[in-house]
Amino acid sequence: MGKFYVQNFGCRATQADGAALESLLAAKGLEAAGDRAAADLVVLNTCTVTASADEDVRQTVRRVHRENPAARILVTGCYAQRAPDELAALPGVEWVVGNSHKTQIAELVTAAPYHGNIHVGDIFAQHDFLSAPVEDAAGDRTRPNLKIQDGCNNRCSFCIIPFVRGRSRSAPAAQVVNQVRSLAGRYREVVLSGINLGRWGREPGSILRLADLVRLLLAETGIERLRLSSIEPMDLSDDLLELMALSPRLAKHVHAPLQSGSDRILRRMHRKYRPRHYADRIAKARGLMPDAAIGADVMAGFPGETGADFEESRRFIENLPFTYLHVFTYSERPGTPAAADPQSVPIPVRKERNRILRELAAAKNRAFRERMVGKTLSAVTLHEPGAALTDNYLKIELARHREPNVIADLRIGGLTALGLQEEGGSLRIA
């Protein structure tokens, strides 16, 4: 076996796992192939957050086997952890390796071959931490994502992830410092991420918390900008928010999953906060950082969500200073309590509620962008020609060419359809 190809599905954590797998395979002497057709080994690193994610993986397995029948297919990741036998039955699949055994993949594929290679164990006994910096899945090669936390101890009723990722565990502080120090030599901005990032350092016996780690990174590395990805509202401590506000090297960007602004629906979801707690954290963030990006994940059509519940949630969202939203239509995930709930919301109603929330998000985002006109914002230039991303998470169309991977102060002259335009460009009123 000479050449390998790793294809990732799903979230940033999966992308980071995939980058680490590529490094482990290369260390065993295998060579990365430019595409699946040229590979002797195709690794599919899967997601299982929805039924459609599972279907994407199954279709890809069939496509790989049809296009490159000589390739040996290894399926790993969250779907492999959840349903190994289902995947092993697909034509062309030689190995199924759950998250519980993902760190052993390089050894498994270079060992003496035999059939029936299913390697899945108790994910809750997993203590290994697999991660490597990864460039953004959308092709952004100037802002690498570094996974520093994995797993989740929460039990939200709609989510399968704790059962395929295991308990919350943290990358050692010294490892994170060394990785960021290395990245700082090549990149201006690094994004710290995790399955439940705010729980970094919460293992028994640990005295460090996420804010402590961030201070350590600021003190011991030369990274120009750190950005924190999604953090649960109960982990947005005053200490962390104040640190974000005070340090010019921390992106002014808060993403706090909400899911619903209805107290009743949050309880049905088994979320660990109430709307008043969430609103308090967002108010604190906005008070400390008047121009910060503030985003949230919200879900439309959760089982049992009445019209009154949805309207309560919509009003709650409308009254908070969000600058963008990631809006999801609820999708049943077999194996979760919510999927067995008999109070299913009709699909057309879910889609209509999604549309209403998306329109609200678009209006909030435009109002935020309009406030930025005439201001000077710090931004990192992207690999995408003529584009930059601001400290507060807005895309800028540049007025003149700049090399990628540079932090620059840019004066905003107007709006584009979805972002901003640097002053001095041929202004288009969007």
Structure report:
With 430 residues, the chain is α/β, with parallel strands linked by helices. The protein has helices spanning 12-27, 51-67, 78-82, 84-88, 105-110, 161-165, 173-184, 210-220, 238-246, 263-269, 275-288, 307-318, 347-372; strands at residues 3-8, 31-32, 41-46, 72-77, 93-98, 117-119, 145-150, 169-170, 189-194, 225-228, 253-255, 293-300, 324-329, 376-381, 387-390, 395-397, 407-415, 420-422. The radius of gyration is 22 Å and the shape is globular. The relative contact order is 0.08. The model is unreliable at 135-140 (pLDDT under 50).
A few lines on this structure:
The chain has 430 residues and is α/β, with parallel strands linked by helices. It contains 13 helices and 18 strands.
Give keywords.
alpha/beta, 430 residues, 13 helices, six-stranded parallel beta sheet, 34% helix, single chain, five-stranded mixed β-barrel
Question: SSE layout and pairings?
Answer:
Layout: E1 3-8, H1 12-27, E2 31-32, E3 41-46, H2 51-67, E4 72-77, H3 78-82, H4 84-88, E5 93-98, H5 105-110, E6 117-119, E7 145-150, H6 161-165, E8 169-170, H7 173-184, E9 189-194, H8 210-220, E10 225-228, H9 238-246, E11 253-255, H10 263-269, H11 275-288, E12 293-300, H12 307-318, E13 324-329, H13 347-372, E14 376-381, E15 387-390, E16 395-397, E17 407-415, E18 420-422
Parallel strand pairs: 1-2, 1-3, 3-4, 4-5, 5-6, 7-9, 9-10, 11-12, 12-13, 16-18
Antiparallel strand pairs: 7-8, 14-15, 14-17, 15-16, 17-18
The helix/strand class is alpha/beta
**Secondary structure: number of strands:** 18
Low-pLDDT residue spans: 135-140
Question: Any idea what the shape is?
Answer: globular
Biggest sheet, in brief?
A: 6 strands, parallel
